[in-house]
Design a protein that fits this description.
This protein is mainly α and 77 residues long. It is 77% helix and 0% strand. The protein contains 2 helices and no strands. Helix 1 runs antiparallel to helix 2. The radius of gyration is 17 Å and the shape is rod-shaped.
C-alpha cells in the first residue's frame, strides 16, 4: 500500500510535532513541585511514561511518513 503525498507529509509533521511538544512538556513537569518529594512522585512517573510513549509513537508515525514519501520517489516498475 502506498500513502498519498499529503498523508505522508502529515505523518512526518505529526512526528516532528511530537518531538517539539513532548520534551517541552517533560521540562515543565520536571520543574513542577508535585514531581519531587524525596525522589520522583507518582505524578512525575505517570507523566514520564506518557512522554516516553508519545515520543515512541511519534517516532514510529514519523518514520512511516518518511517511508511513504520515499516510496513515492522510487521509480515504478
Amino acid at each position: 500500500m502506498k500513502l498519498s503525498r499529503w498523508m505522508s507529509a502529515f505523518l512526518v509533521a505529526f512526528g516532528v510535532w511530537s518531538w517539539v511538544i513532548w520534551p517541552t512538556f517533560l521540562r515543565n513537569i520536571w520543574k513542577d513541585p508535585r514531581s519531587w518529594a524525596d525522589g520522583a512522585t507518582a505524578f512525575f512517573t505517570v507523566h514520564l511514561v506518557l512522554v516516553v510513549a508519545s515520543l515512541t509513537f511519534g517516532t514510529v508515525i514519523g518514520v512511516l511518513g518518511v517511508r511513504g514519501l520515499l516510496a513515492l520517489r522510487a521509480p515504478r516498475s
